[in-house]
Amino acid sequence: MVGEPGTEKITINIGPVDLGRIDLLVQEGHFTNRTDFIRTAVRNQLAASGPAIEHTVARRTLVLGTQHFSRRDLEALRDAGEQVHVRVLGLATIADDVPVELATATIASIEVLGAFRASRAVKAALGPRIV
After folding, report:
1. Rounded CA gap, 114 and 66, in Å?
2. CA–CA distance, 2 with 93 (Å, rounded to integer)
3. Record's superkingdom (predicted)?
């Protein structure tokens, strides 16, 4: 089964008593299924932690949301003799048409709290730069 577009799959271990409590809430119609319960719980916890997250994002100068690097973006950095430090809370992507040489010439480091998508070759080449 494939998840919703724009989501990442995670696996968690949960005790049988907690799982039973979740199942009871699902059976009673409070949630449509276990996944609905878990997503709701995660969103509620993130909302409660909102001020701490915002403070940390501001302090660490992270991009909040999605940051995409196209081949053209990285070529412009290369032509200007610059490198970028990718710092994202959310999703960072590098276009599939970006060659390894261009990525390694322009990306100094990568710190992603969330998901990082790039071709296998680019990911492998940038591996030592991923924080």
Report:
1. 10
2. 20
3. Bacteria
User: Cβ atoms within 10 A of the Cβ of 105, count?
Assistant: 15
Degrees, nearest 5: CA angle 50-52-57:
95
How many helices (H) and strands (E) would you count in the chain?
6, 3
* Residues of the chain under the 50 pLDDT cut: 1
- Alpha-carbon distance of 74 to 93, in angstroms, equals 12
What pLDDT shows up at residue 1?
44
Whether residue 112 contacts residue 86, with contact meaning beta carbons closer than 8 Å, is answered with yes
Q: Which helix (H) or strand (E) holds 116?
A: strand 107-117
- In a 13 Å sphere around the CA of 60, the CA atoms on its Cβ side amount to 17
Q: What is the pairing mode between strands 107-117 and 84-94?
A: parallel
- Residues 91, 86, 118, 123: is their CA dihedral positive or negative? negative
Contact between 68 and 98 (Cβ < 8 Å): no
